[in-house]
Design a protein that fits this description.
The complex is a heterodimer. By secondary structure, chain A is of the alpha+beta class. Chain A is built from 25 helices and 22 strands. Chain A has a 6-stranded mixed beta barrel. Chain A has a 6-stranded mixed beta barrel with strand order 14-15-20-17-19-18. In chain A, strand 7 and strand 8 form a beta hairpin. In chain B, about 35% of the residues lie in helices and about 25% in strands. Chain B has 7 helices and 10 strands. The chains are: A alpha+beta, B alpha/beta. Chains A and B meet through helix 22 of A and helix 2 of B.
Amino acid sequence: MLTDLKYAFRMLVKAPIFTAIAILTLALGIGANSAIFSVIDTVLLRPLPFKNPDEIVNIWGRYANDSGSLRGNVHSFPDYVDLRDQSQSMAAMAAYTRTAATLTYGDDAKYLEGIAITPEAFDVLGVPPLLGRAFTKEDARNDANRVVVLTYPFWKSAFAGDSKIIGQQVILSGRPHTVIGVMPPGWKFPIEDEHIEYALPLEYFGMQVLGNRGSHFLTVVGRLKPGMAIEKAEAELTAIAGRLSKQYPDTNMNFTGTALVKLHSDIVGDVRPALLVLLGAVALVLLIACANVANLLLARAASRSREIAIRTALGASRALVIRQLLCESLLLAIFGGGAGLLLAWWGVDLLGAAGPQGLPHLGQIKVNLSVCVFTFVLAIGSTLLFGLIPALQVSRPAVNESLQQGAKGSTGGLHTNRLRAFLVVSQVSLSLLLLAGAGLLIKSFFNLRATNPGFDPVRVMTMTLNLSRTRYPEADQQTRTYDAIIDKLAAIPGVSSAGGVNPIPLGDNQRSSSFMPSGAAPLPRGNHPSASYLLVKPDYFKTMKIPILQGRAITRADANNSPLVIMINEAFAQKHFAGKNPIGQQVMVDQSENKFDTREVVGVVANTRHDSLARPQGPEMYVPFAQDPGRSLDIVLRVSSTNLVGLNADVKRAIHEIDKDIYVPVLAPMTRFVDTHLAQPKFNMMLLAVFAGVAMVLAAIGIYGVIAYSVTQRTREIGIRMALGARRTQMLGMVLRQSMTLVVIGLVIGFLIALGATRVMTTLLYGVGANDISIYALVIALLSGAAMLASYVPARRAMKVDPMVALRYE
Amino acid sequence: MISLKHLERFYPLAKGKFFYVLRDINLDVEEGDFVSIMGPSGAGKSSLLHVLGMHDHAWSGEYFFDDVGVHALKPKERAALRNEKIGFVFQAYHLLDDLTVYENLDIPLSYRHVNKAGRDSIVCDTLDKFHIVGKKDLYPRQLSGGQQQLVSIARAMIANPKLILADEPTGNLHSDQGKEIMEMFKSLNSQGTTIIQVTHSDVNAAYGNRIIQLRDGFIV
């Protein structure tokens, strides 16, 4: 065996160009697989950083609505408490929501993102703090002595990893909080959020916020009791939801049940199809690469048929010949695998950097031991795939024939040619499949990018401001301060208009409220329709260039003590005021404790895509900030230039002239929110396009190799034909016909496979069907062009065959 | 029919030197001649045959075929002239392995744009004439060497050429088969076909009416 390997190594060194092409081809195929596997290993296969993560489930609610059934992980606090207390199947259940605070220290302030969770969360997640302790139910009840737990990265960056921080007080939104714990590195909750810096008890929100059973804003997560089946737990919680529905019909009539989803599946659910499509794509690239190398080996083995015949004549068994040939393949695969691993090493950094945010462990993607093992297995598998068939083929016992053929310099047999033709057909069909997939994603991406979000994000800068709870407890203060801030900002040179909104479009925060439109048949409160609920400052629509279709915009005259008004979007008007003039109609927006605000519709604006670029916007309500103020507001500035030199400083100075303790974050262009929404489809598109491009190049090289080999093999035949009167163009046509016959067969097979296979991509597509004929036409034209080019080069050689030389072979 | 004047064929060597394969060839061949070209290996016999067959264009001098100056013709015009007037027979037969006897005979006609019905008729006549009707569906590998050469001659004759160029047509055959082939050539010659053959065999050369000796590229 060692001798075989030594001999194989010598043979590879003797043919450096063949060796280099084969290793490079395999490196591309194996490298792409290793890189994508490293993403899948990290994102899909790696367990979440919690104790027994398989027991942790997200508890979704099922809600009946007017369009059927809706699922949402948005519960009210009283519902959560009932589910938690009545459940026997769950070991622990916790509720949480995102929160934010301004940390003040000395003269400076910092905006922090955090999570408000019930104390049970630490039992659900099962991870104890690195330092100190987690908060308890007693801590949660004791609002007077507030506590906070810090995340490891925040503790490291803000407090330089000082362990004496435990027991010290920090000022969050103007109130002192005692730091009682620091979570270990890698602890992140919610797992998909990169920016959580602290956790505090949800109960600090107070019963005024939490006590309303109709106020659904909490996400509920639980840990199944050991050995408990998820279906059984779901049935039990659904039964509890049913009881609550009967017990509280006003608020819970639509709360029909629960759906339990394992936390890991829930997080990766959105990216799983994309990653699996990409894994399928790279597997195809590897298959194409293997077909290419198999073709190279066939051509090479055919030219070695005399050597093999001599070996056989000298007594080598077929198995020994195959072993010898497989040793060469194995060496190629090992070198190809090694080079592929290097490519993957470099590629995963790119994947990590270009990958969309929100994937768990995205920053931790690297080539680790399991990726190395995967690559090694892949290399061995590839050896069998590309090495075995050629080895079996050329080791067929035909000594006499081979020796005679060898003497005449002729090469290849009918079987070998059929196999090579089969490999080319396979390559073409697999490439078509990949190109079709990439084409669909490219069209989908450009459709998405061309989608009009309903506002003009160009030259709009944004930032989120938070006022301190202690300094700005009153609604009037909040309104006045933001009015003053917006006036100051609008006066900055280069700022043409300034406004505010909460929440900002495409910012991943959504807020909705139930309501009743005037003139509609009365419904129990739990059955009220709901719509997105946005608070806006005057000039918001002007700043964002959202057209006002009817009526007027909100102005500063719509103050706290003025009549309550509302603006609605077109979708709202069409759905709830169909056939009526919406202006002057009334909308009763539900408030806590069965109260509601009656607001008069004063304007209708065009639809904007607030939640997602891919989905048309549903009904929206725009309420004047002054009539429902809060401490948080997203500022939007339309600027004459996005050149930020000086603008950030001007903005900070203007705000600090009003209150130097307000934390002023760096301005972010509005286009970034659009880009973030395009990141995942762009990532999918780019990767698949790259893989499809590699596949097409490999297929073209494969076609070139086969046709070039065929022309060499047929030199004598071409010479004879020319001696018999064939014109050079006829020879060109003959070779191209041979090549294009294989290509057309490959295209037809590939087309049929793609018609079925691209259906798995439906969830990744936007504005384009999986069987979009224009994409297939384009892809077929592209692949045919590449194949034609790849065939033309060797076909030209056929034109130049000199019959005199060709016939002198004998 | 053929007239060569001061024809030379050479290959350029390094440092501006040339290697001459044919030197100052002056040759006239009349219609109905049966010429045998002889000489030791490397004398230029096959090269002369390829020049005559218009496969080779890299020569100097004058070449007239039926009073047409081949030297003045463009490659396409030479190809047309060759297709019309010349048939080839090779030592190694050069039948196309993957085509049947019938298809091998059909090929030269297809390159001369003869329509399908016409081709079928000519191929059938030729099969009959060469007594190989029974072999029409066989592949070359299923034939003996003599049979393959017979098919090769039939193929050379199928387009009814005025001239047959044969490069050692019996070189791969044993003597009985060789004799049969030479008889076939003689018969064709007697029917008016001009034949020029390259041969090492005095016996085969005796079938012709004229022998040209080549040595080091010169006619001696």
